[in-house]
Write a structure and sequence with these properties.
By secondary structure, the protein is an alpha/beta fold. The protein has 2 domains: about 5-160, Immunoglobulin-like; about 165-304, Rossmann fold, CATH 3.40.50. About 20% of the residues lie in helices and about 30% in strands. It has helices spanning about 30-35, 45, 175, 185-195, 220-225, 255-260, 280-290, 290-295, and strands spanning about 5-10, 55-60, 65-70, 75-80, 90, 100, 105-110, 125, 130-145, 150-160, 165, 200, 240, 245-250, 265, 270-275, 300-304. The strands form 3 sheets. Strands 2, 4, 8, 9, 10 and 15 form a 6-stranded mixed sheet that branches. Strands 13-14-12-11-16-17 form a 6-stranded mixed sheet, with helices on both faces. A hairpin with a 2-residue loop joins strand 6 and strand 7. Helix 7 packs across helix 8. The protein is elongated. Residues about 25-30, about 35-40 and about 230-235 have low confidence and may be disordered.
């Protein structure tokens, strides 16, 4: 008699959203997923090629995971979040398995909650500097041949989304965000203590006082790239206050999302943005220039 077993894997379901690239993180079949109206339109063979495994997701309300369930025989899966506040789960093809060369598989789309919402008894940890907690998914499988039921538990990490800080005119990242007020603390240190992964933009070279061109047009993508020509890579520089030693990761939205995906192994598609003075205006300039993706990339934009 064949031993009946079930399992699950978690993959990134987000578009990368780098300029002129809206392909999913896995270059997988998400267009087919979102556009399919009937089960036969789903490209299950492509779903088997996902290659960006994830531990969890940022609680930004839009980031998605693809959950891939496997069984040793045909049947039907169902999946429910133990806490309904932990997001949403949608089973593709009603949870019915498809047979592939590798076995019997079913798929679901998980969408992150729009807030971190820590329960009173949640055990908080950190991934990088981001506060993290665990969401539980109860998975059930019914064998088509024997109607035998099996149960499986899946754990999904949920973290706070990244926060990007952008300074104002004639200023720089360290002075604006990493300098304590008299008798107080810097915003960077407060956010870090509260469990936010902080990224600081420094466009001092084009802030009106530096030597680079400083128009709105010249700075229109600062929120995304932080002005760095080769911002993609494996190393992460920091913005540092030379007087106090306080520091934070350097970069804009692109760097923040890259860090979550590559270093923390989290699905992330949105950053919260806080802008001071001209920084808030430049955030709006970016949103106007990149309206198609900015509504997803930027969670909050505030000018003070």
């Amino acid at each position: 008699m064949q031993t009946l077993t079930v399992g699950a894997d978690i993959y990134d379901g987000n578009p990368i959203f780098f300029p002129e690239n809206t392909a999913p993180a896995d270059s997988g079949p998400y267009r087919q997923i979102t556009g399919a109206k009937r089960a036969e339109e789903l490209d299950f063979d492509s779903l088997m090629t996902l290659r960006a495994p994830r531990l969890g997701v940022a609680a930004d309300g839009v980031s998605q995971l693809v959950l891939r369930f496997n069984a040793t025989t045909a049947g039907r899966f169902s999946a429910n979040l133990i806490d309904p506040e932990d997001g949403q789960v949608f089973m593709l093809n009603g949870g019915k398995t498809c047979e592939t060369a590798l076995g019997h598989y079913a798929f679901a789309i998980y969408t992150a909650p729009d807030g971190f919402n820590r329960p009173a008894d949640a055990i908080e940890e950190r991934m990088g500097r981001a506060a993290a907690r665990m969401a539980g998914l109860a998975v059930s499988f019914v064998s088509q041949a024997t109607e035998r039921h099996l149960h499986h538990a899946v754990e999904i990490k949920i973290t706070r989304p990244p926060v990007v800080l952008i300074h104002g005119l004639f200023d720089n990242g360290a002075d604006a965000w990493l300098t304590a007020t008299k008798g107080g603390r810097s915003l960077g240190s407060i956010l870090d203590e509260k469990g936010f992964e902080v990224f600081v933009i420094d466009y001092s070279a084009s802030n009106g006082r530096g030597g680079d061109p400083s128009s709105f047009y010249d700075n229109r993508h600062i929120l995304w790239t932080d002005g760095a020509a080769g911002f993609l890579g494996t190393s992460y520089s920091v913005v540092r206050n030379a007087d106090t030693g306080e520091e934070a990761k350097a970069g804009g939205i692109a760097r923040a999302l890259e860090y979550y995906r590559d270093e923390l192994k989290l699905a992330a598609a949105r950053a919260d943005v806080i802008g001071h003075s001209m920084g808030g205006v430049l955030a709006r300039v970016y949103a106007g220039e990149e309206a198609a993706s900015a509504s997803r990339e930027c969670g909050v934009m505030s000018a003070y």
